[in-house]
UniProtKB/TrEMBL annotation:
This is Sugar phosphate transporter domain-containing protein. It is a multi-pass membrane protein. The keyword Magnesium does not apply. Keywords: Chloroplast, Membrane, Plastid, Transit peptide, Transmembrane, Transmembrane helix, Transport. Residues 18-307 form the Sugar phosphate transporter domain. Its main location: plastid. GO terms for cellular component: chloroplast membrane. It is found in: Plastid, Chloroplast membrane. GO terms for molecular function: organophosphate ester transmembrane transporter activity; phosphoglycerate transmembrane transporter activity. The chain crosses the membrane at residues 20-37, 49-68, 136-155, 161-180, 192-211.
Length: 311
């Protein structure tokens, strides 16, 4: 009996790993598609505040329809739930719009190289704001992460300050989002999928007035006419694709966050960036210098060392 119990535990361990593996692969694939359409849209229609609002709107709409038609179970939420969700939504909104603004100014690969520095932000926030301490090896692993990102940034051919700062702000915001999310999801009956749906809805409400104030319908309409004349009606499909894929990849990432620690999440996220960096460089013919690529490689390697040090 002991043996079969042991093999039962091993089997459930294997199936859990398999499930997380499938989540991760799906998450990365959806994210690559999102990043490509997002950049195609931004190249032709550079209104990141609107496109990030549309991403949240598409997700909110898809989930409201899924609830109404009972494809997905409607979550049972109370005022307390939405109150705890509020800071998460603020962080999600800031991180999302900052990353999109960044990608409207620089190459997708550059935004993601800087975003591969997220674990460094996670350690610094945990250390200085939450008072958590880490072994020396964790701090040492930050050196290649920060050094690699810095090297990639200073050798970037199309460096742009807004692009750089957007990615940095996004890093900081998403560290808070992940810490608060995991806390908010703990012991709650709301699933990862529904948690992300509620997050989208709340973020949409927060972002909409700011998007109108920063860009506004007049610019959107004029820009749209221009994009339509340059690209043709398919610009609408690109916008739809970036919005739908944005929701899908985030939904899958939250389904996996439900099962893993914020640390594993962060590592999975950095590994995801490798596929985004490589595929976007190929698709958009982004010029890269060897030393620039070296910086990115060192940063990603640093994240791997960080994950080893943290375990
Ligand atoms: C966004 O628009 O929110 C960013 O592209 C997402 O960044 P992520 O790769 O950290 O999810």
């Amino acid at each position: 009996a002991e043996r079969s119990e042991a093999s039962g535990v091993a089997a459930s361990d294997v199936s859990k790993r398999l499930k997380i593996g499938v989540y991760f692969a799906t998450w990365w694939a959806l994210n690559v598609v999102f990043n490509i359409y997002n950049k195609k849209v931004l190249n032709a229609y550079p209104y990141p505040w609107l496109t990030s609002t549309l991403s949240l709107a598409a997700g909110s709409l898809m989930m409201l329809i899924s609830w109404a038609t009972r494809i997905a179970e409607t979550p049972k939420t109370d005022f307390e739930f939405w109150k705890t969700l509020f800071p998460v939504a603020v962080a999600h909104t800031i991180g999302h719009v900052a990353a999109t603004v960044s990608m409207s100014k620089v190459a997708v690969s550059f935004t993601h190289i800087i975003k591969s520095g997220e674990p460094a932000f996670s350690v610094l926030v945990s250390r200085f704001l939450l008072g958590e301490t880490f072994p020396a090896s964790v701090y040492l692993s930050l050196l290649p992460i920060i050094g690699g990102c810095a090297l990639a940034a200073v050798t970037e051919l199309n460096f742009n300050m807004i692009g750089f700062m957007g990615a940095m702000i996004s890093n900081l915001a998403f560290v808070f989002r992940n810490i608060f999310s995991k806390r908010g999801m703990k012991g709650k009956s709301v699933s990862g999928m529904n948690y992300y749906a509620c997050l989208s809805i709340l973020s949409l409400l927060i972002l909409t007035p700011f998007a109108i104030a920063v860009e506004g319908p007049q610019l959107w309409a004029a820009g749209f006419q221009k994009a339509l004349s340059e690209i043709g009606p398919q610009i609408v499909w690109w916008m739809a694709a970036q919005s739908v894929f944005y929701h899908l990849y985030n939904q899958v990432s939250y389904m996996s966050l439900d099962e893993i620690s914020p640390l594993t999440f962060s590592i999975g996220n950095t590994m995801k960036r490798i596929s985004v960096i490589v595929s976007s460089i190929i698709i958009f013919h982004t010029p890269v210098q060897p030393v620039n690529a070296l910086g990115a490689a060192i940063a990603v390697l640093g994240t791997f060392l960080y994950s080893q040090a943290k375990q």
